[in-house]
Design goal:
The complex is a heterodimer of chains A (about 270) and B (about 280).
Chain A (H helix, E strand, L loop, with lengths): L28 H5 L4 H23 L2 H15 L3 H27 L13 H25 L3 H9 L4 H12 L1 H17 L2 H6 L17 H8 L6 H40 L1
Helix pairs in contact in A: 2-3, 2-5, 2-8, 3-5, 4-5, 5-8, 6-7, 8-11, 10-11
Chain B lengths: L2 H46 L2 H5 L10 H31 L4 H15 L2 H16 L4 H25 L3 H9 L4 H30 L25 H9 L4 H32 L3
Helix pairs in contact in B: 1-10, 3-6, 3-8, 4-6, 5-6, 6-8, 7-8, 8-10, 9-10
Classes of the chains: A mainly alpha (about 270), B mainly alpha (about 280).
């Protein structure tokens, strides 16, 4: 054994070669594109719901509820991701195993087949969706709030209903920012580690089924890095890390540019 | 209103009602799972929490998490000692020299760093600190947490220090204060209440950070003898127990989750209270 010993107190005999290429057994594709990747599946429910909630807070919802709901969302968003992992593994996964997945299996098709253990892509995607919601809701709320009140009031004065004002004036004005909010959410989902690592099933396989165990880039690092003993394995995980870094930075930069542009144009219209 | 107008308008009114309803439903849908997680943590955690949980170290039946609690406190204190002063100084620089090219680059990279998954911070600290010291250690874990805190503290300080009116700076400079004295004793002091609450929020955030600790602080069944030993933390212990099929350990994990969530929420509420107090005054 030439790699670092990874027992508590163990001392690596030689530093792992960070420049080594990953190959053969440790190629990253299964954790990158583990088709369908949980972050993408998570967006399906989280995007529209988060956006709807974001709309409600500044524009559509009852005014006296806005502040308490906002602070409740912020409070709950502070729950550490490892706690979401605990909940997903001990509460969500059993529910999926006993009720949801058997029902879905009756629909059949390539998405809903295979072994039903509760853990897997579907469970990871659901917990990701839950964790994304506060991000998408609060960023899109901020973006929508930055739209000058005069624009909305002008639309209302011309006889638009509140929904017309949102649909025809506020949303088009804030569309870059809303898109940025969703990108920011995806960026978080891609990097989200502990909750996914707890329930994704941890298998480096690509299967089209949502029931199948899989991996994400961050969860493969979390689960295998502490026990990786060969130099090649560590190097492969480091390479997955590099890829993860590039992807999340790209998402974040794009999202920030969009949100900043949206807020700037809102400020410009106000001046 | 003519009848035609009336009928055209009523359709749109209906659509508006429907959209308002749908967005309220979205709020409920968004809140429901979050509240469910919180409720499970409180109810299961309250059932599992006990005196031994706080005083016994990790082990088999009847054991607790005392060493993990101590480990989390150690790490968070050490990380704060490293991350907060550095973050405040960096933020102050950003605000005082806001237009320089370096400041812009630093601000941008702080924003990027804040968005990088925290597990990557763990990978980097492993490569730099753990490999160098040839050992997992509380120090390495604290370094990872400090790096997570850094952009949060720096950007909060930056925003708040920039909000300090220039007239205060000019008054200090006119009285003969040097630039660093102005920054440290006028700008920083004026912005202090907000910065304090920003730091509390950063502390709350790293209290729950698990991913960067997995292979830096690692884990330990015992109290560590020194900061250079591997250390158990509540966060990592929750994850370890989550992955076991043992009901006893699951109960322990719920109790630990309750303690962690309580810490995070108390810190968050205190931070917000501090901020609110500042506003009217």
């Amino acid at each position: 054994m030439t790699g670092p010993a990874l027992e508590p107190g163990g001392s690596p005999s030689a530093p792992p070669p960070w420049g080594a290429r990953a190959g053969g057994v440790f190629g990253p594709p299964a954790s990158v594109g583990g088709a369908p990747p949980p972050p993408a599946v998570a967006l399906t429910p989280a995007g529209p719901t988060g956006l709807g909630a974001g709309c409600s807070l500044p524009a559509l919802g009852p005014p006296h509820l806005r502040k308490p709901v906002s602070s409740l969302v912020e409070l709950l968003a502070a729950i550490p991701s490892v706690v979401y992992g605990l909940w997903a593994a001990l509460v969500l996964a059993p529910i999926l195993r006993t009720t949801v997945q058997p029902a879905l299996a009756k629909i059949g098709g390539p998405l809903f087949r295979g072994p039903n253990v509760g853990f897997g892509i579907l469970c990871a995607s659901l917990v990701l969706a839950i964790m994304l919601l506060p991000t998408i809701a609060s960023v899109s709320r901020d973006v929508l709030r930055a739209v000058p009140a005069e624009l909305r009031e002008g639309a209302l004065a011309l006889g638009a209903t509140p929904w017309d004002a949102v649909r025809l004036v506020v949303l088009p004005h804030a569309r870059h920012g809303v898109f940025g909010a969703i990108l920011l959410g995806v960026g978080r989902a891609v990097g989200e580690t502990m909750a996914v690592a707890a329930v994704v099933g941890s298998r480096a396989d690509i299967s089209p089924s949502l029931f199948a165990p899989g991996y994400t880039m961050s969860s493969v690092i979390a689960n295998e890095f502490p026990v990786a003993s060969s130099e090649l394995h560590i190097a492969a995980l480091a390479e997955v890390g590099l890829l993860l870094f590039v992807i999340t930075v790209a998402f974040n930069v794009a999202a920030r540019i969009l949100v900043a542009r949206s807020n700037k144009s809102a400020a410009g219209a106000q001046a | 209103m003519t009848p035609e107008l009336e009928s055209a308008y009523s359709g749109r009114k209906l659509a508006s009602r429907f959209a308002t309803g749908a967005s309220s439903v979205a709020v409920v849908l968004a809140l429901l799972p979050l509240v469910a997680v919180f409720a499970y943590v409180v109810s299961r955690g309250a059932r599992a929490i006990s005196i031994p949980f706080f005083v016994e170290p990790i082990g088999e039946r009847g054991a607790g998490m005392a060493n993990a609690i101590v480990g989390t406190i150690q790490l968070v204190f050490l990380a704060s000692a490293m991350g907060i002063p550095l973050g405040i100084m960096a933020g102050l620089y950003l605000a005082e020299y806001k237009a320089t090219r370096l400041a812009r680059a630093v601000r941008f990279s702080a924003d990027v760093l804040a968005g990088v998954p925290s597990i990557l911070v763990g990978v980097v600290v492993y490569a730099v600190v753990v490999v160098w010291m040839k050992q997992f250690s509380a120090f390495a874990g604290a370094a990872a947490l400090a790096i997570v805190m850094l952009p949060l503290v720096a950007r909060t300080t930056d925003e708040l220090a920039r909000a300090v009116p220039d007239s205060l700076r000019e008054a200090a400079l006119a009285l003969g204060a040097s630039r660093w004295r102005t920054a440290l004793f006028v700008v920083l002091r004026t912005a202090a209440p907000g910065i304090r609450s920003g730091c509390l929020l950063a502390v709350a955030r790293v209290c729950g950070e698990t991913a960067p600790l997995l292979f830096t602080a690692y884990n330990n069944r015992f109290y560590n003898d020194s900061l250079l030993d591997p250390t158990s933390t509540l966060q990592v212990q929750i994850f370890t127990y989550t992955m076991t099929p043992n009901d006893d350990w699951h109960a322990q994990a719920w109790a630990a989750a309750l303690v962690l969530v309580a810490i995070v929420i108390v810190l968050g509420v205190v931070a917000r209270r501090l901020l609110d107090e500042k506003v009217p005054g």
